[in-house]
Amino acid sequence: MNQMRILDIKQSIYENNDQQADLLRQMLKDRKTFLLNLMSSPGSGKTTTLTQTINQLKNELKIGVMEADIDSDVDARKISETGVSVIQLHTGGMCHLDADMTKQGLSGLGIDELDLAILENVGNLVCPAEFDTGSSKNAMILSIPEGDDKPLKYPLMFSIADVLLINKIDVLPYFDFDLEACKDRAKKLNPNIKIIPICAKTGEGISEFADWIRKEVSEWNRY
Amino acid sequence: MIEVVQQVEAFAIENDAPKIDTLVLQIGELSSVVPEYLKKIYPMAIEHTLLEATKLEIEIIPGNGKCKVCKQVFNLLKTNGICPQCAGTDIELLSGKEFFIKEIICFDADDKDT
């Protein structure tokens, strides 16, 4: 008679991705390439913010951008106007990028050439927070029209972000958005989070973000 | 789910596992994984793999927290994250975020002792 046997596995399902992400991070470190993973909900201004930021940094850093979307190349075209190298990644319906897809994107860009690689993740505040892409640092954007309650509703995203850009600050007077309450909520989840109010359209606050990137890039390359 | 199946296949090959009967996963109440969806796509994910024709079992792990103020342990979902004893909101998460492959149950075809 056949006997039943139980084999213990006890593996986290995120483990596979986490391992790949760590390998990728090490590879990036060895080659002195800083990878910034930029996340936000759709329409919060990722591409506009990037365009402004790239324009401030492109003369001092070699930059490459990966645009991740479910479909289309609208964003990639916009970024390519800045003159930096850009590659469009299609996730084929998936709502986030994982470390393996990020690695493929990086080899498409040719990371040996780059000081700063930026991954514009799929517009989504849920799934991208769950999957480590292998990035050096995570940035997220929250725009004023989305509301100051977002840290309460999407806590994971706010707790993994190293920097929070609060975009569309120019329309603050027209919305019931409590900036201080929003900052407090984000800080409660993540005491070390750096918060920069910006307006991607006018360029307000972008130099502070660019300075943050400069500092992080030099720190990344130090060791 | 396809990744889960690949991970289990790798484990089965590595450990020389005999025919697999059931895969057991553990899913936390507070993880963003929906057990119903997993069950639905399971038959498709295992097609043409070592896990073909196996069963899927899911154990749910409760989302429990411990109040940092009064040390009460309670289910976060039932009380919306608020301590039922002192109404505190500073809670230490104990469990509920898991998404684990727990074990596989196999038929040991060679073992004919019983």
Question: Could you walk me through the main structural features you see in this protein, from its secondary elements to its overall organization?
Answer:
- The complex is a heterodimer of chains A (223) and B (114).
- Chain A has a seven-stranded parallel beta sheet, sandwiched between helices.
- The radius of gyration of chain A is 18 Å and the shape is globular.
- In chain A, helix 2 crosses helix 9 (206-222).
- The model of chain A has no long low-confidence stretch (mean pLDDT 92).
- Chain A is α/β, with parallel strands linked by helices and 223 residues long.
- The longest helix of chain A has 17 residues, at 206-222.
- Chain A has a single domain (28-218), classed as Rossmann fold.
- Chain A contains nine helices and eight strands.
- Chain A has helices at 15-30, 46-57, 74-80, 99-109, 127-130, 150-153, 155-160, 179-189, 206-222, and strands spanning 3-12, 34-40, 63-69, 85-90, 116-120, 137-143, 163-167, 194-197.
- Chain B is of the alpha+beta class and 114 residues long.
- Chain B has a single domain (2-106), classed as hypothetical protein PF0899 fold (2-Layer Sandwich).
- Chain B has helices at residues 2-14, 35-45, 76-79; strands at residues 20-28, 55-61, 64-67, 73-75, 91-93, 99-108.
- Chain B has a three-stranded mixed beta sheet, with helices on one face. A three-stranded antiparallel beta sheet of chain B has the order 4-3-5.
- Chain B is elongated.
- Chain B starts with a helix and ends in a 6-residue tail after the last strand.
- The mean pLDDT of chain B is 86.
- At the A-B interface, strand 1 and helix 1 of A face helix 1 and strand 6 of B.
